[in-house]
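Handout, page 2. Input:
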Amino acid sequence: MGVFTRLGDVELRDIAEAFALGTVSAYEEIAAGTINSNYGLVTDRGRWFVRVNEGKAEVDVAWEARLVAELAAGGVVTPPPVAARDGRPYAPLRDARGKWVSVFPWRAGHHLAAAAVTPDTAAALGGALASLHLVGLALPAAWRRGSIYDHDHLMARYTRVATSVDPVLARAIEILGEELAVASAARATRARATQGIIHGDLFRDNVLWQDGHLVAILDFEQASGGSLAYDLAVCINDWCWTNRPHADLIEALLRGYESRRPLASGDRDALPIEVRAAAARFTITRITDVYLARVDNPDKDFRAFLARCEAWRGPALGQLSSLL
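Output:
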């Protein structure tokens, strides 16, 4: 994790001018990013979160910014992007580096550690996710762009991984091959789940809390069209797990979700498949993007999600099914 594009006083003043943020009084690098470069900026008009979008085309930056604006307008607890002076919710970075800057109002809060997740916070998260899904369902279907982590994409990544002779990966290669085969065989069941806009990466580090209340959902970079059951499965794999899945947290998350959006029968049928598919996805991406890339990030160790893959092949899956 780190900052990939260094910005100085002049560039940050230019950004403040481009977005009419006021006079800059302080700024800091935020080293928590794994994809983008992030800064906290203080001006006489307030505090702001500045993101330099790394490796993205303008069309992708625009889509994400406009989606977040739509979701915020619909009542989703997410800070809306700040419009630049030209009206766009993003602006080019100084010196024509080919990068685009997005700015959001700062939201104070903290992330929950896995051990700090309670049935109450799991239920609140479920309700917030349902609200996001409901707003997304009201948007035209044209908003549903394809996911960069769909089944075919993951198969392509797996094909590359499967050629490795690294003994550390041997067990993962075996399990992932079987899990991807299960997901492929269940395409029809997965397709019957409700389709809409999904966050795609709603881990604990993408949600802010303050005084026990959920105050912001962040980071819609991996948002896309997709299965709402899959989005729930991603949450279950992160929020309802320490060294094993916790049935009380899963039950609370589902209860909170259904308090705002009852699951359709297709969602219930798909969810046991999607928890396996989500665990496989994050195992694969952490192998390709972290382990094989030799990135030193212990928080992204693929073995944590490989353990989830193994757990869902046993009694844990039956326990989940009994809650549906």
